[in-house]
Amino acid sequence: MSKIRVHVLAKEVGITSKELINKLNEMDIAVKNHMSTVDENTVGKIKKLYLPSNDSKKTSSNKKEIDNKNLADKKKSKESKKEKTTNNQKTKKDIDNKVRKDSQHDKKSGEQLKKSSSEDKKKPKNSDKSDVKKDIKKERTSTKKDFDEKKLPRRDLSKKKPKKKSKSQKRLEKKEVVTGDDTIVNLSMPITVKEFANELNVPLAQVITKLIGLGVMASQNEIIDEDTCILIADEFGKEVNIVQPEEEKSIEEEFGLDFEDKEFQLKPRPPVVTVMGHVDHGKTSLLDEIKKSHVRTSEAGGITQHIGAYTVNIDDKKVTFLDTPGHEAFTSMRLRGAQITDIAILVVAADDGVMPQTLEAISHAKSANVPIIVAINKIDKPSANIDRVKQELLENGLLAEDWGGDTIMVPVSAKTSEGIDELLEMILLEAEMLELKANPNRRAIGTIIEAKLDKGKGPMATVLVQKGTLRFGDNVVSGFSSGRIRAMTDDKNRTIKKAGPSMPAVILGLSDVPNAGDLIYAVEDEKVARTIADKNKESNRENRISLNNRVSLENLFDRIKEGEMKELNLVVKGDVKGSVEALIQSLLKLDNEEVKISVIHSGVGGINESDITLASASNAIVIGFNVRPNINALDLAREEDVDVRTYRVIYDIINDVEAAVKGMLAPTIVEEIMGRCEVRQTFKLPGNTIVAGVYVLSGKILRKSMVKVLRDDVVIHEGEIGSLKRFKDDVRELATGYEGGITIDNFNDIREGDLLESYVLKEIQRD
Ligand SMILES: Nc1nc2c(ncn2[C@@H]2O[C@H](COP(=O)(O)OP(=O)(O)OP(=O)(O)O)[C@@H](O)[C@H]2O)c(=O)[nH]1
User: Fold this and answer.
1) Where is the composition biased (Basic residues) (predicted)?
2) Candidate ranges 4-13, 232-241, 521-530, 609-618; pick with highest mean pLDDT
3) Which of 191, 196, 512, 751 has a CA that sits 20 to 30 A from residue 497's CA?
4) pLDDT greater at residue 565 or residue 708
5) Among 3.40.50.10050, 3.30.70.20, 3.40.50.720, 3.40.50.10540, what is the CATH number of 565-664?
6) How many CB atoms lie within 10 A of CB 453?
7) Which pLDDT band, with edges at 50, 70 and 90, does 90 fall under?
8) Annotation-wise, does 378 bind a ligand?
């Protein structure tokens, strides 16, 4: 038998919790209040004291029977209740299932995929949880006697942070429950003492007195847990019914914006391809070459406009290329939840081989689950070495098909056109394997690829249609923006009347400039479009707040415990290859049963925006060893709430991650960055001290702060500021935009172009 709570034991032996607490204290057994636990030994002693031994056995066996019966009855009534609810919720479930299936079927439905997959993750868990909770609650509330059932799982809700609920949610909960029985009080948690007294309809003072009687010292605005409520209500002859919050419907669900298509309605659609790779490896040249050779002469009349996407014809089959430099769009779109790419083309220059951005691209595509086709470019160059590229790719997890692997690698030259046809063929082949399909005969859903405000025409948006057909005159909504399509052009700047799945189109008529990466829906009329846009505006704040669901070392353990996290994703950056590898090896050793550690990307160099985007899209933590995030990365991390940890000692990293996984992260000292300045000049003082002439780029530099010296985002020194001057005067701080002079204690190797980061140490208390 495990430990048992005081109030449960009190019930069992038929005395009040207060009496039991007094008794235990008399026996020198320290218990604070009714929620304290006592061990088996103590339980035995108390039972001996209060229950005659024979009777006790009888009572408990009788009680077991009663409980079993109660349980069976409850099960029955629960089942019949469940049946009712199931019927009521059938329609909703159907839609949910449809959405889910749909997203499984059609991987490419961008945000839809993310939403439904996160629903998949959330829903069963929530419902399980709420079932368990309901069971517990029923056990507790059904009869007073049931209370002594110590085998029931118990949760100490007082330890759980109360989740904030919106007013509408609360209203909804209240409306839901109509019992008609005034001995039953419906409560939605969390609840304060005052709210509880109101619900019970008894004076606050009486509730507080009863609480004191139970050893709980709580003021009117303090939150009390479920167990306490049940006990107090009981004292007033009332039963508590904890009302579970209804899952709020998303706007998409509420308006039925997406639904599953029937298999027979699905038609093959062109693949959507993104070209990625290291700078100067030939992405643009390759796309230009493809465009040049595969845009039909009949289409050539139109002037190709840059709209972020275009289609080419290969053997009468279409391929849509996302025409974005680098892989930024690919990742920032994913960041917003849209996954529109079906296939990633990884361009690697045959004379240069695998470079840092090649690796980034591989990590991005892999974490997004997008198949990669490698284009080994510049094979016309004498220095080209195809096998070397293949070897390097192999070292990074991509094994060429002709070497026995499953990654298609095509040698090409954007200059001579060699291999381009084969590359396109491979794209079509891959697309065929992926069996990409969509229903063209329904209202359109697409993703905004690019959007801008045109002075003459108003908001202009490039849409990539994913399902259905977008038509001239359609009423559409995307985020806050809604409107009626009053002009539509294709990638060749020709007016079109409609665009089907995988086709890009530029539309005019939206009220505001929408966000790239957001979904756009065609809806039945203008009013619906406007209503949805308004609702989106309203819910935007809440959505931003939901970013707080991001994983961090602080909340990791809770997330693991709650079953939300099975895998901890890490992006690892360091100053040298050797230490990054050593660090990864050590981190991977921290894998345990509860959580799998996976390094989704690693590299040498400072933490950049791409690392943050990847971390954000994959809910990862960024670990930097001897490197720092650059300013843009820092801003993005703040915006996206990505946890970025930087360290100087590998041991500290391992310790922290290990402690976080085990939920034992100690109160810690963190560095709070105050500001950054750039060294524009250096001067030598008599005595050889170097003064750095600096310009403050962001925040402020404090005289009494520590400073990190960064060279190419790598920390080369850390120490205290020796002096801080503005002109000839000593100053306490230098603000953004100001110039001044800095010396650093015990460090003289300051160079022009170095960045100095001023920071203070701050203690963070964990709860
Ligand atoms: N010899 C040769 N040169 C090429 C080939 N492809 C591209 N180049 C050259 O390589 C340079 C970089 O090509 P880009 O197409 O601009 O490369 P990119 O990857 O788009 O570069 P960023 O957009 O800056 O990332 C240019 O000078 C091209 O002319 C090729 O197949 N052979």
Assistant:
1) 157-169
2) 521-530
3) 512
4) 708
5) 3.40.50.10050
6) 10
7) very low
8) yes
- Give me 598's structure tokens: 């996976």
And the tokens for 277? 């790779």
pLDDT band at 137 (very low <50, low <70, confident <90, very high): very low
Residue 58, pLDDT > 60, answer: no
What is the rounded distance in angstroms from the CA atom of residue 225 to the CA atom of residue 33?
Answer: 13
Could you report the predicted ipTM of this complex, rounded to two decimals? 0.97
- What is the pTM for the complete model shown? 0.54
Q: What is the mean pLDDT of residues 721-746?
A: 91
> What is the arithmetic mean of pLDDT over 530-536?
87
Q: What are the structure tokens assigned to 220, written together? A: 């009117």
Burial of 561 (0-12, 13-18, 19+ CB in 10 A): exposed
Substitution site in 284, 322, 357, 385 for ligand 1 pocket (most atoms within 8 Å of beta carbon): 284
Structure tokens that stand for 169 in this block: 């949610």
The hierarchical CATH code for the domain 265-438 is 3.40.50.300
Determine contact, residues 74/131, Cβ cutoff 8 Å: no
Domain 565-664 matches domain 668-764 at the CATH topology level? no
Phi-psi region of 573 (alpha: psi -120 to 50; beta: other; left: phi over 0): beta
Is residue 718 lining ligand 1, measured as CB closer than 6 Å?
no
Position 627 pLDDT exceeds 70:
yes
From 601, 547, 525, 543, select the one nearest 570 (Cα to Cα).
Answer: 601
State both tokens at 177: 């429950």
What span, in angstroms and rounded, lies between the C-alpha atoms of 278 and 349?
Answer: 8
Q: Pull the structure tokens for residue 157.
A: 């809700």
Angle between helices 226-235 and 111-141 (to 10 degrees): 30
Sheet containing 317-322: which strands, arranged edge to edge? 309-314, 317-322, 272-277, 343-349, 372-377, 408-411
- Cα-to-centroid distance, 353 and ligand 1 (Å): 14
Kindly state if the Cβ of 725 falls inside 6 Å of ligand 1: no
- Would the pLDDT of 525 be above 80? yes
16 is in an annotated binding site: no
Q: What mean pLDDT do residues 141-153 have?
A: 34
Residue with tokens 């009949």: 298
378: CA distance to ligand 1 center in Å?
8
The residue extents of the domains of the chain are 4-48, 184-243, 265-438, 445-544, 565-664, 668-764
pLDDT digits (tens, 9 = 90+) for 490-504: 888 889 999 999 999
Cα 415 to averaged position of ligand 1 atoms, centre (Å): 9
Question: Is 455 known to sit in a ligand binding site?
Answer: no
Q: Which two tokens stand for residue 666?
A: 């100690």
Distance 429 CA to ligand 1 centre (A): 26
The CATH-assigned architecture of domain 668-764 is: Beta Barrel (2.40)
Could you tell me which CATH class the domain 445-544 is placed in?
mainly beta
Distance CA(82)–CA(76), nearest Å, equals 10
Q: What per-residue confidence (pLDDT) applies to 479?
A: 87
Specify the pLDDT at position 609.
Answer: 85
Structure tokens at 533: 């846009």
Strand locations in 158-205 (E): 184-187, 191-192
One-letter amino acid at 19 equals E
